[in-house]
Amino acid sequence: QELSFLRSQVSTLKSQIDQTNSRIKELEKMEK
């Protein structure tokens, strides 16, 4: 079913965004 496929895509993307955001924060700390 398309809806459940889309929902799982969203969860995957959200976790990728979270990981990327925390990586950005780490890099920002290092730069300062």
Set down the secondary structure blueprint.
Blueprint: H1 2-31
Structure description:
By secondary structure, this protein is mostly helical. It has 1 helix and no strands. It starts with a helix and ends with a helix.
Write a brief caption for the model.
This protein is mainly alpha-helical and 32 residues long. Helix content is 94%, strand content 0%.
Quick one: overall form? Answer: rod-shaped
Number of helices: 1
Ranges where pLDDT stays below 50 over 5 or more residues in a row are: none
Written as H for each helix and E for each strand, in order along the chain, the element string is H
Gap between N and C termini, in Å? 47 Å
Give the strand tally.
Answer: 0
Helix content: over 70%
Strand content: under 5%
Largest sheet: none
Radius of gyration of CA atoms, rounded to a whole number: 14 Å
Secondary structure class reads mainly alpha
> Could you report the average pLDDT, rounded to the nearest whole number?
97
Coiled coil: 3-30
Keywords: Coiled coil
Task: Output the keywords.
32 residues; mainly alpha; 1 helix; 0% strand; rod-shaped
